[in-house]
Structure formats: C-alpha cells, structure tokens
Fold these 2 entries.
Entry 1:
Amino acid sequence: MKLTTILASGPPADHLASGTAICQQQKAAILVHVPKTAKFHSATVYLGTELLKENHNVTFSVCPSLHKPCLETASFALPSIKRIEATWESTKFSTLEKGFVWFVVEGNSPTFDHSFTWFDAASFNHTTAYNDGKWTVEKNRVGASTIEFIVQ
C-alpha cells in the first residue's frame, strides 16, 4: 500500500502560535484537493488544548461538501495540555473522488472560554472555512490551519 501526502501545511509557529477557536459555537474546515480517486488514510493537525476542562472531544470529518453528509467521521477525547499533534487514522478508508473534499474539525466544549485551538501553520496560504451559525469560506487565507492529509 503506497501512501501519498496530498496536502501538507507544515507545523505551527514554535512561539505565540495562533489559530481558530473550536467549540459547539464554531467549527472550522480546510479544503483538500484530491488529484485522482484515492482512499482516505489519515490526517494530522496541531491543537492547543490548555483551556479544556474534563470530557471534551474533537471530531474530525471528511466531507464532499460543507452542506452534505460526510464520508467519514471520528471523535476522540482531548487532554488538557499546551499543544498536541493529533492524528486520525481511518478505519473505513473512504473513497475520495477526484476533485475536492473538506476536512472539518469540531468540538463539544459549550463555550469559547473552554475551547481548543486548531493552530495555523507558520507560513501556509490555503482555502479554509469556519461556521459560527453558517459557513464562511476564506479563499487563500494567510496562515491557514495546520494539516497533513494522506491518501492511499
């Protein structure tokens, strides 16, 4: 099985990293170009989790559209530490058609006060979106969210 990275942002800044707050009130996504039909293998992102209280989760999804059901979703408990590199390895290996998919990050914290942060890459411009009631797309956002997206 050959693995191919189709989107790699690089890590966040070592000091004073910024990003998007993720909680029940706001989720975020990044657009991934799929150059040819492939199976989703894994995705890795950097998260800041120091504000979290107990029993908070991150939910990752791969979706063909921001307005349609997702192909695959998984949720994980998050530790309350400064920074984590979170990797989701697929168990379904969903088929991704040539074109685009959205990688979506959601959280279950009820407020921004106890949210986690999806860190931005140090120098990476890409199309992202956030949802604080409706989806807003930002094309070629400077300092887009961190991601490594791998297919097989």
Note: The CA atoms of residues 53 and 114 lie 7 Å apart.
Entry 2:
Amino acid sequence: MPAPVDNDQGEYSRALHFITENEPEQRLHVQVSQEMYLALQERTRELYGDAPYPRLDYFPTYSTLVIKTQPSPLAPAMGSFLQQSIIGSAHEVLIQQNRPELAERIVSAGEFSVGHRLEEDQREGSAPTAATERVDDDNNNSADDR
C-alpha cells in the first residue's frame, strides 16, 4: 500500500510550502497522518517560534490539518466599516417602512462564523452550541452522528 504514504508525503510537501510562503489571509486543508502533523508543527515552530501564525489545527477524527495564515491588518477595520454600513442602511429602510420596533432590534454580529465555531467546538472537545448543534450532511446525518 505505497499510495497512502506517497499521498501523505505529497500533502506534507504541499503544507510545508504553504507554511514557508505564509501569505496573509490564506487557509489550507490537507489530509495528513498525525505523525505528519506533528512533523509540520515542529517545522513551523523552528521557522516562526511561538508566533500565533501560521496556525495549525489538526482534527484527528478526519485526519485533516487546517493551516491558517495571519489576517491582513486591514481585515478588522474593513469588516467593521462594512458591518456598520449594512446596519445603517437596514436601519434607514426599516424606519422608512414605519417599522421602528424592528430597527431598534438590529445588533452587531460577532466575529465567529458557524464554520469557525464548529472548528472551535471540535478542537476544544465541547458540545455543540445552539447555533451549531444541527448541521446536516447530504445523508441527513447531524454533526453529532459523525
């Protein structure tokens, strides 16, 4: 069975290249064994020390490594500006439609997406939250059934 070893080595090389390039705001998913993950983690530590990025998150259930590079410095500012613009526009439309009670209920959303929250839950081994507890795949299996 040399194919899985060859594939693991190929994915390792691909991940190592991604780590050394370290372009901002990138994300890579690769399927590697836990041994390859540990080797990549050690190599990342050699290259970057204790820097927070690139960040390696390994999900042993799926033998999947997710590598995230540093966010762009503009990302938070642009996201905040865009969010405030959308909130302002929605507020105006609701006021024009004589729905002030709805306009008052508009709140800013947090920075976490459902996908990010699922990754956090799996990494921490915590139970799914109300926002993430029912994620179905094409076979009607919830995240809890997998």
Note: Confidence is low (pLDDT under 50) at residues 111-118, 126-146.
